[in-house]
């Protein structure tokens, strides 16, 4: 299968404080990378980009925050919502590189979002096994 149109799409914030890159090498897999400040503007772009990847059919999404700093209050809700949508498709979201600012936002997150983000942060994408518990990351739903 060929590369999709938005392969290696990059957006640079108007303040040049952040860059969000997305790669979707095939229909099912995608990577979002955030570099720079996670502020209101970058969180809105991240939401738009994640939604676009889900609409394009991504089922397995890695969000790399290792080069990001700061944390907009809505970032965990955004990631949790994307993770729930992917789980409903029998996919997953893998969160990597969440720094101290993102981790501090856990105090403000709902219990449901906390569990979702925990699973996204501890789930390994390569074999679908939770690093912490050894159980499957994705709840499999029987097909009727």
TrEMBL record:
CDD domains per UniProt: STAS_anti-anti-sigma_factors
State the InterPro entries in the record: STAS_dom, STAS_dom_sf
STAS domain: residues covered: 19-136
Q: Provide an example Pfam family for this protein.
A: STAS
Q: Which protein, by its recorded name, is this? A: STAS domain-containing protein
What organism is the protein native to? Pseudonocardia asaccharolytica DSM 44247 = NBRC 16224
């Amino acid at each position: 299968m060929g590369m999709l149109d938005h392969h290696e799409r990059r957006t640079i914030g108007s303040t040049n404080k952040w860059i969000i890159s997305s790669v979707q090498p095939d229909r099912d897999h995608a990577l979002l990378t955030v570099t720079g400040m996670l502020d209101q503007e970058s969180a809105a772009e991240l939401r738009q980009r994640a939604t676009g990847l889900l609409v394009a059919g991504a089922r397995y999404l890695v969000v790399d925050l290792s080069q990001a700093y700061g944390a907009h209050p809505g970032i965990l809700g955004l990631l949790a919502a994307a993770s729930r949508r992917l789980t409903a498709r029998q996919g997953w979201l893998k969160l990597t590189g969440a720094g101290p600012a993102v981790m501090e936002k856990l105090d403000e997150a709902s219990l449901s979002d906390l569990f979702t983000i925990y699973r996204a942060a501890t789930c390994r994408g390569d074999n679908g096994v939770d690093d912490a518990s050894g159980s499957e990351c994705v709840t499999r739903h029987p097909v009727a």
